[in-house]
Design a protein that fits this description.
binds iron/sulfur cluster; single chain; 10 helices; 3-stranded mixed beta sheet; alpha+beta
């Protein structure tokens, strides 16, 4: 392994992460696979950009642990725990941590980096960094689905040959159907390799659009997203450790529910939400809190 590759890998390991460096030559294969099996039913095809800067020679895939968590929300009848699946919280902090961690090595070797926007999970699965579950999440050894995946391009030459994964899905999924049974909306189909994105709660509760009538009120289980197909997944056994990351008093909850805009909140509450990166979801937070309260029969 080339010294820079080794030092970058070491620095990411030191902050508890895992890393894979892969030649950019894998990209056309990822694109082909993405177009063939588009896991998001075409919804992301205009979002991704496969035309990279010509100086990019390799792609760095980093996974940092990201626990499932919850915040406590005080309401008229007590305190509820509002679940938040992995990945939503502390995004900015984790991205800065990666940047800071690798910057010394990049400076030392005069390397450059570029942000890239393409199917990260597919790249990671094809380069054997992880495997898909039946629920369309990426599972990584030792982290399960509790991780944040980050990819960026560099002009560093990758010395390793591309080793394409022969199977993108975990073997254990063929003998397991836990997530199919857990998913109340029927988004995961035994026969279909893709989940039906338009049936997934996450797709609906991350967006401002009205929640469709066919979604039953007691199906809502998280402040944002949905934990159902992950929390009981055997590939997450021992890894699904919920952490409390914050609490909102009765007054703060009322302020969130009544606020017309994020900027209308008082500064302390804005900061609290921003630290958790929940400011990104402020547009749907009020509605989702009310949905959760209703699901718990508190409204
Ligand atoms: S619950 Fe079972 S089928 Fe679903 S992703 Fe996990 S291991 Fe695979
Ligand atoms: S996130 Fe929820 S709704 Fe979506 S597939 Fe998983 S269990 Fe089903």
């Amino acid at each position: 392994m080339y010294e820079a590759e080794e030092l970058i890998a070491k620095s990411i390991n030191n902050i508890g992460g895992k890393i894979k460096i892969v030649s950019v030559d894998i990209l056309p294969l990822v694109r082909e696979q993405f177009e063939k099996t588009d896991m998001n039913n075409g919804m992301l095809k205009d979002y991704f950009n496969f035309s990279l800067d010509a100086d990019i020679k390799s792609l760095i895939i980093v996974a940092l642990p990201s626990s499932p968590c919850y915040v406590e929300i005080e309401w008229d009848f007590g305190i509820i725990e509002a679940d938040i699946p992995p990945v939503y919280i502390h995004r900015d902090q984790q991205l800065s941590m990666i940047k800071e961690t690798v910057s010394n090595v990049f400076e030392h070797f005069h390397l450059k980096s570029w942000p890239v926007v393409f199917p990260k999970k597919m790249l990671a699965a094809m380069s054997s960094f992880g495997k898909y579950g039946r629920n369309n999440l990426l599972y990584i050894e030792g982290m399960g689905s509790c991780h944040r995946l980050t990819v960026f391009g560099t002009d560093m030459i990758c010395t390793e040959e591309i080793e394409l994964a022969s199977d993108l899905r975990m073997d254990r999924c063929s003998k397991c159907g836990v997530c199919i049974n857990q998913c109340q909306t029927g988004a995961i189909d035994k026969e279909n390799i893709q989940i039906a994105v338009d049936k997934c709660l996450t797709f609906h509760n991350e967006r401002k659009n009205p929640i469709p009538d066919w979604i039953q009120s007691d199906w809502h289980n998280s402040l944002i997203g949905c934990i159902k197909c992950q929390e009981k997944c055997p590939a997450n056994a021992g890894l699904w450790n919920r952490k409390k990351v914050g609490e909102f008093s009765y007054d703060e909850t009322q302020m969130i529910i009544k606020a017309t805009a994020f900027e209308a909140l008082d500064t302390a509450l804005q900061n609290k939400l921003s630290e958790l990166n929940l400011d990104r979801y402020f547009d749907v937070l009020s509605r989702n809190i009310l949905l959760l309260l209703k699901a718990k029969n508190l409204l």
